[in-house]
Specification:
heterodimer, A: 450 residues, two-stranded antiparallel sheet, 44% helix, B: 95 residues, Alpha-Beta Plaits, globular
């Protein structure tokens, strides 16, 4: 029987320490919607989304009511749209944007705040559908509000497609010029798992069933509260984090199971990522500071993040056999209250962030950069981050947000979950000769495991 | 429709201490024919806390209706009252 203390501990986690389920994401296979004609394809997509997700929001809200754990976001991830474009009789950029707006409208109708899967998988090379989709990203982002896009440019097994990284430098820059929030909904990935519930990287990989539920949990506030109370040595600190992580994951597992059962779909995985928000107390940077570092970004920060991510994973793996997705800790610059502060004060820069991403679960995330940053430099930053993922066998993502008309030190507000922050300085050292060499960097020696 | 999950609920009340809180909550449970399995209450530094574990299978009403009525009573009494399925606590605190 659970004790009164345990009941009160759970309630404190929710009411004081902001424990929530960050997202329940419904993955939907759209391959059967691909028809010769784009109009017909869009009709089928709208029908299938309505059929599979018509009662999704209502069901998730019901589960939230039953268990008293807030579920912040309901989202949908679909089959990479480049595959659908490949199947069209007359594939074109215009057709791609039509699919993009169809998805966006469906999301709005279903009460979903983000829909992911405007995705191209080009870690080896681009197909016709990939080429069309990538070139359509700026316009697709401009035409939508809820659509999320991701482009997978590398994997440990396949190497780094530098042609696509260079192209993404241009696409990101162009997107920033015509769409205010477009770059915040666009990520460049390496080693992307097929079961990510978090946006913008979520897509319904082709290894999945027709529909499945993935859950993204959160809980920086809960971990922080535990860390604050721990004066012990590193063993004690790691144990404390593991215990908390276990409990958070168990909550996520129950929610995921119940939603999947009520939706009559598969339960995929739990992404155990500490996902910060701009809310006070919901910060990964503050956990690092509570471990004894004056400002996140200072010496010791990478080590602190490493032990945090590791302990979180260990607790989670013990709690559930369904751990997947990114799983670790996010350090999005504009979405984390502590990160917003240290970035404003100049305690952290892109180079230190890059070092920290080698031990956390994502990458350079929501980093506002000057609007006039050349596309080759954007490509160079992406290449550095992607290399960390490829050579260390981990997932990384790059979400750089050039801010039109803004310079380093200027302040920007994205609004809502996307947060706010100071535009970070970018080194203007020319790397264009490097990023324009062309082709693919071969697979890393660490990939030869057969 | 058969309830897809368990039938046990946890009712938690946090409030300033004053007479009538337990009476108010348990009266609603009795009216709904909900069977209380465990009931504990403490007052610490003037903060009243009450935890009740109850079985709703005897009730004839569904979780939604029970939750609604209890929350209505909670608002009337001006107390913090939470109703949750018991599984969430079992799952989080037991290996």
């Amino acid at each position: 029987m659970v004790t009164s203390d345990e009941i009160l501990e759970t309630i404190k986690m929710v009411k004081v320490e902001q424990l929530d389920i960050r997202t329940v994401t419904l993955g939907i296979n759209l391959l059967d919607c691909a028809k010769n004609d784009v109009g017909h394809t869009c009709e089928r997509i709208a029908e299938k989304l309505e059929d599979k997700a018509g009662d999704f929001v209502e069901i998730v809200n019901g589960v939230q009511e039953d268990f008293g754990i807030p579920i912040v976001n309901k989202r949908i991830a679909v089959t990479p749209i480049s595959l659908i474009i490949n199947a069209l009789g007359m594939p074109s950029k215009k057709a791609a944007v039509k699919i993009a707006t169809t998805l966006d409208e469906a999301a709005e109708d279903l009460g979903i705040n983000f829909i992911g899967g405007y995705t191209a998988l080009v870690h080896r090379a681009a197909s016709l559908g990939d080429n069309i989709l990538i070139e359509s990203i700026p316009e697709a982002m401009e035409a939508t509000e809820r659509l999320c896009s991701s482009v997978v440019v590398a994997s440990t097994r396949d190497g780094i497609n530098m042609d696509e990284i260079l192209r993404m430098g241009r696409i990101i820059k162009k997107t920033s010029e015509i769409s205010e929030t477009g770059c915040a909904r666009l990520v460049v990935l390496a080693n992307a798992p097929e079961d990510i519930p978090f946006m913008p990287g979520a897509y319904h990989g082709i290894g999945n069933s027709d529909a499945s539920i993935n859950v993204g949990i959160s809980g920086p506030g809960v971990v922080r509260a535990a860390v604050e109370k721990t004066d012990g040595n590193f063993m004690d600190l790691c144990d404390t984090i593991k215990r908390v992580s276990f409990k958070i994951v168990r909550a996520g597992e129950l929610i995921g199971e119940e939603v999947a059962k009520r939706m009559k779909v598969d339960f995929g995985s739990i992404d155990l990522s500490l996902a910060p928000t701009p809310a006070v107390g919901d910060s990964v940077a503050k956990i690092i500071e509570d471990m004894g570092i004056e400002h996140c970004g200072g010496p010791g920060s990478t080590c602190a993040l490493a032990l945090l991510t590791d302990a979180v994973k260990k607790g989670g793996i013990m709690a559930s056999s369904r751990i997947g997705g990114y799983s670790g800790a996010f350090i999005p610059v504009s979405e984390d209250r502590g990160m917003i502060e240290v970035a404003k004060a100049g305690h952290i820069n892109i180079e230190k962030l890059e070092a920290m991403t080698s031990v956390c679960s994502v990458g350079l995330d929501m980093v506002p950069i000057p609007g006039d940053t050349p596309e080759e430099i954007i490509a160079g930053i992406i290449a550095d981050e992607i290399a960390i993922g490829v050579y260390n066998n981990k997932t990384v993502g790059v979400r750089l947000v050039p801010i039109k008309g803004k310079r380093e030190g200027d302040y920007v507000h994205f609004g809502g979950l996307l947060g706010e922050g100071a535009v970070m300085p970018v080194k203007k050292i020319d790397c264009s000769k490097f990023v324009k060499r062309g082709g693919r960097i071969p697979a890393s020696v660490t990939s030869f495991r057969n | 429709m058969a309830d897809p999950i368990g039938e046990k609920i946890v009712i938690t009340v946090l409030s300033a201490d004053r007479p009538g809180i337990v009476a108010g909550v348990t009266r609603v449970l009795a009216e709904l024919n909900v069977n209380i399995l465990e009931l504990s209450q403490t007052v610490l530094d003037g903060v009243f806390s009450m935890i009740a574990i109850a079985d709703i299978s005897t009730s004839g009403y569904d979780f939604k209706k029970i939750k609604h009525d209890l929350e209505e009573e909670g608002a009337k009494l001006n107390i913090n009252l939470l109703i949750q399925r018991k599984e969430i606590f079992d799952r989080m605190h037991r290996v």
